[in-house]
Amino acid sequence: MSMKLILQGPSCTQALAQACAALFPGSTLQNFAQFPYQTWRITDCAAPGDAQRQQLQALCEGVCDYALLPQSMNWDSFGLLVMDMDSTLITIECIDEIADLQGLKAQVSEITEAAMRGELDFDASLKRRVALLQGLPQAALQQVYEERLRFSPGAENMLAAMRAHGVKTLLVSGGFTFFTERVKAQMQLDYAHANQLGVADGKLSGQVEGEILNAAKKRDFLQHYCAQLGITAQHAIAMGDGANDLLMMGAAGLSVAYHAKPRVKQQAMCGFDHVGMDGMLALLAY
After folding, report:
1. Cα separation of 252 and 226, whole Å?
2. What is the pLDDT of residues 138-154, one digit of tens each?
3. What is the pTM of this model?
């Protein structure tokens, strides 16, 4: 299979691109000047062996992002983008910021980090964190949305490109519907699903209502909307940062680890650490 190698990042120089191209005899190097970052595409690459992969990683490590993908992969290959929300589409972990209003951010963040690394059962860790929020006024959620929630760099550009190319967008979050519904409306997403926080007498009850949206549910929603759109999961892109994103990423035709935990980077097809979400544009360019 003929492959393409995409290199991008603020420090991605021509010299680096040439060194990477030299790993693939007979390949062609192009500068992608139209993209937000220093971007290069190397086409007609033969599938690399282990030694080539190690050399490529050594050249790019700490300098730029790279993606080695089928050369035929482009915008026409996909009909659905599935995204995690916290620390992916947005820069914060909402539950940590809610906890901060209770003076419990450090305690909750520690649990969140361990869950995202895959060290804790997600369902149990979520129940444990939500229980710590009991008694907080529901108005605190709006305060977090207005004062702390920010979108990741390049998110607007990426989503605009998805709409322009007819790719539907799905937000699946282990967080909460209060935020996903507002993010869906603000960013013009097609679908959104998350957990429902319990509320009683205007205060958080400390419980999650209904079934928890965990890793398996994220994968199930990806497959559900693919079926609804009449496409296979190979025509879906999945982006995430934590261990609870791995099942949906494993089911997708393209998986992107966005500023992700090490375990997620290891299993994804490619990762963004040096670019924003609009790094996707170079991956799918014709």
Report:
1. 10
2. 999 999 999 999 999 99
3. 0.95
Residues of the chain with pLDDT under 70: none
User: Which residue is it, tokens 């790279």?
Assistant: 66
Q: Do 149 and 274 contact (CB within 8 A), yes or no? A: no
282 neighbors 35 (Cβ within 8 angstroms): yes
Buried b or exposed e, range 125-159, using 16+ CB within 10 angstroms: bbeebbebbeebeeebbeebbeebbebbbbbbbbb
- What CA–CA distance (Å, rounded) separates 246 from 263? 9
Instruction: Determine the Cα–Cα distance for residues 52 and 245; give it in Å rounded to an integer.
Output: 28
- 3-state SS of 166-227 is CCEEEEEEEEEHHHHHHHHHHHCCCEEEEEEEEEECCEEEEEEECCCCCHHHHHHHHHHHHH
Task: Please tell me which residue in 86, 241, 245, 278 is annotated as part of the active site.
Answer: 86
Verify whether residue 86 is a known catalytic residue: yes
Task: From the candidates 65, 84, 123, 278, give the one annotated as an active-site residue.
Answer: 84
